[in-house]
Structures are given as C-alpha cells and as structure tokens.
Structure to design on (304 residues):
C-alpha cells in the first residue's frame, strides 16, 4: 500500500499570514491536530500544529525558563508572542511523495515523532496522512501473523 | 483555568486484556489519539497511543542490521520495539510512565508539561482514581477563550 492509497485528499491548510486565533479555531472546528502551511500556489512552506500553538497559553514562558536550554527558550518565546501562522509554524517539514510505501511512513512517524505527513507532488501539497490514516490501513490488513512469523 | 475546568470528564478507557486491534478501531471511531489502560478501580496502568499501534506497520529492524550495528543499539529500546510489534493486547503494547496530575493543576502548567514531556495528553486523577483527560485541543480551547475575553476588555 502506498501513500496515495491512504492519504486524505481534501487538505485543510493555512497560509503564512493566517492569524493565530483563526488557525486555532480552524484546527478545533475541523477536529484536526495540525495543517500544512502553503503559499498562493499551494506549495508547502511549513506546518502548524497544536504543539506549536499551545505556547500561546499564558505564563508559559516563566515556567519553561526553568528547564529549557537557550535555543529552546528562544523558540518558545517566538511561538508565545506569535500573532500569525508564519511566526508559530515549524518550517522544517517532513513530506512524502505519493509513491512512498505505508511501512516507510509508519517508521518515519515513530522515529521522527511526527503526527502527520503532507503528501507532495513537486512542492505542491496533494494530500495529507495522519497517524489515524496509517492505523486504518493497519486495521484493514491486521498483521495476524505478519511480524510474528519471523 | 484549572485542570478540572478544561478536562474531558468521560474518558474512553480500556483494560489490560483489550485486544490491540479493538483499541485501534476505538481510536479511529472516537477520533482520539490515545486511551488509558485502567484496572477495576480506575487506576491508570499505562496508556496506548497511536504511536504504539504504528509499530504494527513499522519496518522491522532486520537481522543483518542488528548483527552489524548491534553494539550501537540499545537493548532496552529493541526489547520495547519487539514487544510493541508482536503484542496482541493492551498490556503488551502500552507505554508506562503516564503523566497524571491533580485536578487543581493550572492550565499553563499543563501546557508547559506537555511541551517538556512531549506528550499529547495528561490524565487528571483524584487520589489514584482517573477522573478526566486534558488534551492539547482542550488547552487550545482555553487559549481562544482567554483571547476572546482579552479582546472584549479592550
């Protein structure tokens, strides 16, 4: 099974200048945990997720200052004062092409600790795969003896 | 806002012997990313998340690879991976060391803990008993509510 077989084609996206409040409401309304950030041509420029936006919770900075190193703290400051998506998003995004096997995506999600992967054709976002999408594939062909056999 | 104000009180939970496949279906149906594993007294034993289930589709570490790089691999981590790949019920695949907090924990502290521990949800307990769950979405709802109030005050 490949990326194209399990991906969601109607992708909820944000743009760099989307206000943070609007981005939060968009996630909550669509019951999703993150969305790709795209430019006017639909090219992938970043990803913004719950994890980026919870820094907006008040007085998170004084609490974080106790245990974060300088680099993490500066990142936290940037996200805590963000007013638009560009300032809160993660710009280093892992993406896959439509031909990548599901096994590779599952491995990537575990090892990189990512929750969703945009599917791109060139740089254009054509789909998205969440952990739930991979799980649906797992349930569909539950490995009753797949890994047990070796 | 405190944990008890923002938490979801009716927590979807499973038992030690719930089959892994049932848990996967439950997560998909309820659109959640993890469930606590509880005993008969609602005490938390661990949590099964999407991540634990993804191991069923993970490319296994090949035998030749282990042979070549075995010295550099962490045996505990390999054991953990093995357990999750082969496990068939909640007890086999769950992760332990679940983050539990009392009901009067402030929202800001919960958010900071989520960032520090890299967890998506924390469980709210009264004594040892599970009474609720706070997800990142609950924190976001708290944030927009506060932003709304700040906006009205201006």
């Amino acid at each position: 099974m490949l990326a194209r077989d399990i991906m969601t084609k109607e992708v909820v996206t944000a743009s760099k200048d989307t206000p943070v409040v609007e981005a939060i409401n968009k996630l909550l309304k669509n019951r999703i945990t993150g969305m790709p950030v795209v430019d006017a041509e639909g090219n992938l420029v970043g990803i913004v997720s719950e994890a980026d936006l919870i820094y907006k919770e008040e007085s998170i900075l004084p609490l974080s200052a106790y245990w974060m190193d300088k680099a993490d703290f500066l990142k936290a400051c940037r996200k805590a004062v963000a007013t638009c998506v560009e300032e809160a998003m993660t710009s280093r995004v892992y993406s896959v092409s439509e031909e990548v096997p599901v096994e590779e995506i599952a491995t990537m999600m575990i090892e990189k600790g990512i929750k969703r992967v945009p599917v791109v054709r060139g740089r254009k976002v054509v789909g998205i795969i969440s952990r739930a999408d991979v799980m649906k594939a797992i349930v569909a062909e539950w490995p009753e003896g797949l890994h047990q056999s070796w | 806002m405190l944990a008890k104000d923002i938490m979801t009180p009716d927590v979807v939970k499973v038992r030690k012997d719930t089959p892994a496949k049932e848990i996967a279906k439950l997560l998909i149906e309820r659109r959640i990313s993890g469930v606590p594993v509880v005993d008969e007294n609602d005490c938390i034993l661990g949590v099964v998340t999407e991540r634990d289930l993804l191991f069923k589709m993970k490319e296994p570490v090949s035998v030749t690879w282990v042979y070549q790089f075995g010295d550099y691999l962490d045996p505990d981590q390999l054991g953990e991976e093995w357990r999750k790949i082969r496990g068939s019920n909640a007890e086999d695949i769950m992760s332990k060391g679940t983050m539990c907090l009392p009901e009067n924990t402030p929202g800001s502290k919960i958010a900071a803990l989520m960032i520090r521990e890299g967890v998506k949800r924390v469980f709210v307990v009264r004594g040892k008993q599970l009474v609720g769950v706070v997800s990142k979405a609950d924190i976001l709802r708290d944030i927009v509510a506060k932003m709304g109030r700040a906006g009205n005050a201006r």
In short: Residues 146-150 of chain A have pLDDT under 50 and may be disordered. The helical segments of chain A are 3-6, 20-30, 50-53, 60-64, 70-80, 85-88, 102-112, 131-140.
